[in-house]
User: What shape does this take?
Amino acid sequence: MPGRGRDASEAEKPPWEVQAVLTAIDELEPLDPAARDGWMYSNEFDNAESAAPWVLRFTNSRTFHRNDGLTGYAYKRPDCTTPEVLLRVNSPRRGFCIVEEPIVRPGAASASPGDSVEAECAWSVGPKDALKLEPQQMRADGREWAARDPNVGDEVDMDADKAIRVLAATRPVYLDGGLLVLRSAVLDEIVFVWTRNGADDPPPVDVTPPDEGEAGLPASIAAVLAARDATKTKRPANREIINRYN
Assistant: This one.
């Protein structure tokens, strides 16, 4: 399952691995190629036929992991897994998208072709240019059912009805031909990172975990700071540091 993380609400701060991803996204966001005209007008967002679907590479959404995916299928059937999430925009027609999770059955190493759970969603532009996804139909195991409206008081048919709504409102903060980053429009620190399906993984990046010492800084940064401080005859007081950087 992509990116086993935790919502920031679970703790005072996320694990350092998750924080490293969030820091990278913060640095990417000002460079968003789609920001000038808007993601909704970008040819890169529309991948109905001309491009491979998006595949989810990382999320720190607790709801996603609690439901074992975006459809909740594997949560209701613990003998199955749905380790991959695909997103097809403007499919089966414009203004809709398909969220697909191939199903790995018990004893199988991978999903059989065509054996998936799908959520057909309508997409629209919401307030503050949010991407709104509204589930319409769910399909799996040869049957189809309507996703339940959360404002209606009837019984939920599957946890999929609430699991898929983790993507109900997000903000596309980076979009190019190979990368789509969504932030939750409700909790800004919750992210979903997608790449094109079939694309090679990026080269590994050496991310050093923080030291357990008092500073709690990555070793590489701590070494640079120590070398800097060694050249000084007098360290500034804490108050001077706070006034300078705040």
Notes: The chain has six helices and nine strands.
